[in-house]
């Protein structure tokens, strides 16, 4: 066992695993989980399943571990973890079944998650979703007030009610509430109030809100404040901060060498959307082969938005067969913009008979009405 530390009962075991993981010693953390499982420590399988998902490893094994915990009757929220995994992989019906079954057994900690499923993944279920959020609130779920407020804020007539819930959540110690209050005020056009709450959130440790503050100041026209918040976000290691700073430089027409250096820093830091941002800049400067390579890297990292610009670049390079392949991939990945782009592609190649099916697919993907209308028009042109 790494560091001579064997498994122990209680929270200290998971704290030890977290420490090992934070130090970059994933294998030592794995050994701790596996030994704990072998010794029958309660919750070890569920905690290891969670770790596997955090590490981007073996979701099938994580699912098996969650189900095994549930089958054993172990009281360790295996059903909650399983439902989250099923939902994240598009198996919403199974997730809902797990949640309803658990709630029927009195597992009220699942109420808020069922509210999410009904509000986000189902249509026509808002009344039931609200009832489950309120159940969670009544059961003392510490995140219920915040999540109910987010749900209510979608209704313009209930935003004041949502705001009151967020204040209640903030006073109760919910670490997400201040940021959400800031975002809501900003959305409602009150930049001063939005700025105030976002600053509170950032000062209380929600450093990702520094990017929101940068965006707010950009909207307000304060370049200096925008840049300051971006640099602070970089200093705190906020995901996406390097990319956001590079885009800030692009938007202000900085010298190409400065912009490219910033984009390279973002890529080297493996920052969110860095390859896509670099590719878009290269495409704009007509460095198409380089742009194509960056878009490929973005797609390989799971950025489905990269398929459409890849197809565009390939078409510009005269590689029409490859362009079509990526338009299809984008459609399969759920990008509605690929539907109208593919319709234009087919029309340009005289393949009008293939276009009507794209209108149906675009509707399935909730494409804009004008895009669907354009696809239908291209089918008969």
Choose one word for the global shape: globular
Number of strands: 0
**Structural class category:** mainly alpha
SS element count, helices: 23
Mean model confidence by pLDDT? 93
- In sequence order, what are the helices and strands, one letter per element? HHHHHHHHHHHHHHHHHHHHHHH
Radius of gyration: 24 Å
As a percent range, the share of helical residues equals: over 70%
What percentage of the residues does DSSP assign to strands (E)? under 5%
Instruction: Characterize the largest beta sheet: strand count, sense, and whether it forms a barrel.
Output: none
Distance linking N and C termini? 70 Å
- Weakly predicted, low-confidence segments: 1-8
Protein name: Sel1 repeat family protein
InterPro entries: TPR-like_helical_dom_sf
Organism: Actinomadura viridis
